[in-house]
Amino acid sequence: MTIAKLTLTTFLTATILAGGASTPAPASASWSWPLSPKPSVLRTFDPPDKPWLSGHRGVDLGPTPDGAPVAAPSDGVVAFAGVVVDRPVLTIDHGDGLKSSFEPVTSELKAGDTVRKGQVVGSMEPGHCSSATCLHWGVRRGEDYVNPLGFVEDLRPSILLPLL
User: Where does residue 95 fall: left (phi above 0), alpha (psi -120 to 50 degrees), or beta otherwise?
Assistant: First the structure.
């Protein structure tokens, strides 16, 4: 193997293993879809360039019927269950700075309740998507919104490696 091929292979391997700052983390086995069966993505994650600009800070999943069960995507503790403006919202703190929010979702849970991955945490209500009932799912890491799909799907780009 030539020095150039060895260097290139080492660099590519290190890059793939380390990932880049803009590369989404691979899906985690500790997270699952909040709707079952696996829903369609009706609107993708489209964060704004600046925090005060408009954008889409989550994904819309569905369509789902009114009253469809919503499940916890990972273990956590309910951080908020109530109404924001005119929509019912449920927020789960998953630890390590990760929080997921769901709307419009009604729930009998209250702040401080422990939830387990896959546990039904609420029911879908109409009011988010104009043409169908859908679930808006947002995830924050600290104060930054991240793509929820990165927790249930591998969003890393495919990379072709050279043949050695």
Answer: left
Phi and psi of 103, rounded to 5°? Answer: -150, 150
Pick the more confident residue, 74 or 9. 74
Pick from 159, 137, 149: nearest CA to 24: 149
Q: What pTM does this model have?
A: 0.77
Residues 6+ away with beta carbon under 8 Å from 149? 41, 44, 45, 59, 155
Give the ranges where 1-153 is alpha helix by DSSP (H).
Answer: 3-18
Q: Are 42 and 130 in contact (CB under 8 A)?
A: no
Classified as helix, coil or strand, 164 is coil
24 compared with 70, residue with greater pLDDT: 70
